[in-house]
Design a protein that fits this description.
Two copies of one chain form a homodimer.
Chain A lengths: L2 H6 L6 H12 L5 E2 H10 L6 H13 L3 E4 L7 E4 L6 E5 L5 E4 L2 H13 L2 E14 L7
Parallel strand pairs in A: 4-6
Antiparallel strand pairs in A: 1-3, 2-3, 4-5
Helix pairs in contact in A: 3-4
Chain A binds a DNA duplex (25 and 25 nucleotides) through helix 2 and helix 4.
Chain lengths: 138, 138
DNA sequence: ATGTATGCAAAACATTTGCACCTGG
DNA sequence: CCAGGTGCAAATGTTTTGCATACAT
């Protein structure tokens, strides 16, 4: 049930917002660019403009509903915010994204920041490479 | 001595290339955007176009001479490649960049990748926040 | 000389914004 | 009904590219 989330953000429940949230919720690997979302909406015969996709994504991000990532390449990708923080592994070949979390890394980051008199407000850790096994869709 | 580096990359020794390399070598915090480099060249009365700055930076990056980073915000920043890998701490207020390296984090990354059948070709770790002490220039 | 580099202007992208019309509550 | 939302086209900001000229070797 996503309507509540949209309402809680102080936004009206509109078709574009519902559709975009639904797309992101059901996307295979949970990470999509604005263009990808736009194209998928088009093929679903939704009449939604690219500008609206960007506006909605920006609003959702401001509301904490989704998170914006800047992986390699030019365009940003978005994912539904999950309760728990995690980092990413991105396959340079297929674009596949896998999430991971490591307590030791998190702790080390804090320790390093403290040692430098730095107060962390956020961080980005991305591993680029390739999956040496199968499982590709993209 | 930088000429050798340019030559080794298979590029001719030209004024723009020398000047840009020199700027990056002597920059206070070693991290500059293409625009910053361009503006500083202008104020040094160098007659170099922005397009050339971008072209040279891209060539230097391809040659491994410099590294391109995508910190918060829109434009990429560049730094002279150092022998030893390091990650970054970026001050959201002043833009100040501090480098760090942590063996434990590096090892954990490898372990995590291995556990996922992932071969790392590169990674990006950036801490965003603020320095709680003094020392700001920007 | 001669293949590379460069400067300039125009193009290419990703993203944002202005504005008149539409729509949800 | 009416503030907020949307589509479209135009604007923006960053980076790239085409092309004629200039330079390094």
């Amino acid at each position: 049930m996503e309507e509540k989330d949209i309402k809680r953000a102080g936004l009206k429940i509109t078709q574009p917002r519902l559709k975009i949230l639904e797309l992101l919720s059901t996307a295979p690997d949970r990470h999509m660019s604005a263009e990808e979302i736009y194209r998928r909406l088009l093929s679903n015969d939704e009449d939604i403009g690219l500008a609206t996709v960007y506006r909605v994504l920006t609003q959702f991000e401001a509301a904490g509903l989704i998170t914006r990532h800047h992986f390699e390449g030019t365009q940003a990708v978005f994912e539904i915010s999950s309760e728990d923080h995690h980092d990413h592994m991105v396959c340079s070949k297929t674009g596949r994204v896998v999430e991971f979390f490591d307590e030791v890394i998190e702790q080390r980051q804090q320790a390093i920041a403290a040692a430098h008199g730095f107060k962390i407000s956020g961080h980005s850790l991305i591993l680029y490479g390739e999956f040496t096994q199968k499982a590709d869709e993209s």
